[in-house]
Design a protein that fits this description.
This protein is α+β, with helices and mostly antiparallel strands. The chain contains 12 helices and 16 strands. The chain has 3 domains: 3-97, OB fold (Dihydrolipoamide Acetyltransferase, E2P), CATH 2.40.50.140; 125-157 and 206-448, BirA Bifunctional Protein, domain 2 (2-Layer Sandwich), CATH 3.30.930.10; 171-204, no CATH class. The strands form 3 sheets. Strands 6-10-11-16-15-14-13-12 form an 8-stranded mixed sheet, with helices on both faces. A 5-stranded mixed beta barrel has the order 1-2-3-5-4. A 3-stranded antiparallel sheet has the order 7-9-8, with no helix packed on it. It is elongated, with a radius of gyration of 27 Å.
């Protein structure tokens, strides 16, 4: 039986078998040992009361330390101690694997998150990372439930691509060329004709362009998968490998894009509050006081809408000495986004109509010729959590924007075909899954909400 189910069961003499890993063992002078066991199914441990009369007590039970794995038979009973309502009166203890207390790197005392990143293969056994994993799993299910219930079609987009969606060039190259002796052309350049795909190929930074192909046939689609950015950023907000959710909607404008984005954020927050109450209580106590109230505020209020120009004007008169000076035409930084959400509006904010020069080529140009129909969803403590836009459906303007971004339209012939053949208004957005997990758990570093973080100079495990 899962420990989660055992703790919720009626304890009147029910015989059960639980299995898990020892968190602590303490011995009583009265001839008992108390073993705290957790199997990862929930935050609380179950306490097993093990009598010294068991045949394996001297040989096995007294050798149990943190990290050992056990299987315990017994009967559930109302607990006589504090902190738990149910305990297990053990009738048999089978040790599945001992753990050397001198070598096991996780002990009962608090261990820093930085140290736990160096033992990412074991950190899921801690309360913090077990809770993160359960929240992540619950929210992943919510992603599919949200879009499927609204008639969206899930689309698995390629991990390997020849297209630079963002136009920033920060992409990981995929190659089978001999790196010691790569083939070269007559002018000395690398010869990709002999590479696996016969051309330059990369890990994807986004599935958006491919998603547009299916949106322009099926109406509403969404992606949910890994993406990769080769940015040399060692900040608490950046990863080289992370998961993205990217819905794309045909016959949609920016207004619908914003409405779906707001509903999506609220659905994720609501799922965390209703399905992961124990975990959020733990994060509120150990990580971010006031976390639950902040999340409930997201559900209770409509998001504020501000144009980029209005946001810049408000920031300019805020009377702050910004680390990054505020100026029209420059992107908003985290300090600006947090001020807008935490002090000026005191709730999530959707900023729209950004300058074209700081946004991607595929965003629809506004009639002013200076701004695009883009939107960013900003939340307290975090800043930007979603970026989206209405897409440029006019082929001439799109080709011009590509050239301005240093992209050759010939490499995007298939993307331009969507504008040649039955073009329609369409819109979409991207949500970084790890960003929303940071927001919901309150954890300060994005490396702590993904099982195996990939960052510059770090690709362990």
């Amino acid at each position: 039986m899962k420990i989660r189910d055992a703790l919720a069961a009626q304890p009147a003499g029910q015989a059960v078998t639980v299995a898990g890993w020892v968190r602590t063992r303490r011995d009583s002078k009265g001839g008992f040992s108390f073993i705290e066991v957790n199997d990862g199914s929930c935050l609380p441990n179950i306490q097993a009361v093990v009598p010294a009369s068991l045949p394996t007590y001297e040989a096995d039970v007294l050798r149990l330390h943190t990290g050992a794995s056990v299987e315990i038979d017994g009967t559930l009973a109302a607990s006589q101690g504090k902190g738990q309502s149910v305990e297990l009166q053990a009738t048999a203890v089978r040790v599945l694997g001992f753990a050397d207390p001198e070598a096991y790197p996780i002990q009962k005392q608090k261990t820093s998150l930085e140290h736990l990143r160096t033992i990412a293969h074991l950190r899921p056994r801690t309360n913090t990372f077990g809770a993160v994993a359960r929240v992540r799993s619950a929210l992943a299910g919510t992603v599919h439930q949200f879009f499927q219930s609204r008639g969206f079609v899930w689309l698995p987009t390629p991990i390997i691509t020849a297209s630079d969606c963002e136009g920033a060039g920060a992409m990981f190259q995929v190659t089978t060329l001999d790196l010691d002796k790569p083939a070269r052309t007559q002018d000395g350049a690398l010869d990709f004709n002999g590479d696996f795909f016969g051309r330059r190929a990369f890990l994807t930074v986004s599935g958006q362009l491919e998603a547009e192909t299916h949106a322009c046939a099926l109406g509403d689609v969404y992606t949910f998968g890994p993406t990769f950015r080769a940015e040399n950023s060692n900040t608490p907000r950046h990863l080289a490998e992370f998961w993205m959710i990217e819905p794309e909607m045909a016959f949609a404008d920016l207004a619908r894009d914003m409405a779906v984005a707001e509903a999506f954020v609220k659905a994720l927050v609501d799922a965390a509050l209703t399905r992961c109450a124990q975990e959020l209580a733990f994060f509120e106590q150990r990580v971010q006081p006031g976390l639950t109230a902040m999340l409930r505020g997201v559900l209770e209020h409509d998001f504020v809408h501000l144009t980029y120009s209005d946001a810049v004007a408000q920031l300019a008169k805020a009377g702050r000495a910004w680390e990054f000076p505020v100026e029209w035409g420059k992107d908003l930084q985290t300090e600006h986004e947090r001020y807008l959400t935490e002090e000026y509006c005191r709730k999530p904010v959707i900023v729209t109509d950004y300058p074209a020069g700081i946004k991607a080529f595929y965003m629809r140009m506004n009639d002013d010729g200076r701004t695009v129909r883009a939107m960013d969803v900003l939340v307290p403590k975090m800043g930007e959590i979603i970026g989206g836009s209405q897409r440029e459906e006019r082929i001439g303007i799109l080709e011009s924007r590509m050239r301005q971004s240093g992209l050759d339209p010939r490499n995007y012939w298939w993307y331009l075909d969507l504008r040649r053949f039955g073009s329609v208004p369409h819109a979409g957005f991207g949500l970084g899954f790890e960003r929303v997990l940071q927001f919901i758990t309150g954890l300060a570093n994005i490396r702590d909400v993904i099982p195996f973080p990939r960052t510059p100079k770090s690709a362990e495990f």
